[in-house]
Known about the structure:
alpha/beta, Rossmann fold, five-stranded parallel β-sheet, four-stranded parallel β-sheet, 10 helices
Amino acid sequence: MDFIIVTGLSGAGKTRVINSMEDIGYYCIDNMPTALIPKFADLCMQSGSSGLSRVALVTDVRGGEMFYRLFRELDDLRAQGGEYKILFLEANDDILVRRFHETRRKHPLMDSADGSLQEAISRERELLKPIRARADYILDTSQTTSAQLKERITQLFLADMPSGLAIHCMSFGFKYGAPTEADTVFDVRCLPNPYYNDALRHQTGLDEPVREFVMDNVETQGFVVRLLDMMDYMLPLYTSEGKSQFVVAVGCTGGKHRSVVLTELLYKHFIDQGYRVSVHHRDLTKR
Length: 287
């Protein structure tokens, strides 16, 4: 049975995720009380091939005191032979505040935070730290559109994809902040910068002239040899450990030139190695 627990911060996009998972064939339930998780999983396992072999359910702080017994219920689930994966969603505080203002919805912890939305978000983030630490997948939706989020969910969970480690390659600009969901971050600001070439400044790392500029440098060539060697060594270790997702982020100053070139290189290299891979250039369109 493919059993996914979706949880995370309020406003981080759990509803969008569960809708996307339903679109790719999961039986989905929102706001499941934690006490019912082992019982429902047992029902799914007994159903065999009757349609409950791929399940995703959302559980979060809306469940009140029951939610804080999540680990106990998951331990019971595993004791009865049920396996599961945890998908954890998060976003930056300012993004969450904006989303709550736009939807005019009330944060579940607002009353206990004396009506302060910022305090409610802070308390929830602290409460969820142990769950985040045990998550198999962590997605930061701060700068992710609905279409991009659906693409990520499809890449991770689509039924006809082979099992094993799923890799997500991301480029970004340090000036906009490093991605919190990355397992490994490489800083390529030490490499020659096309930005200072007037002919290349307004192009991106997806354009061939920029790619040639970056890759023709001795510094980049030496970096690439060591980068690929490190990745080829690390990924089998993560696979043998049972890791489900690996997020590798490459950052330069603005996220438009060097990081994009190196991220595309990693993306193509991982495909050649037979991994499931997706790619996202987070800051490519920012001014």
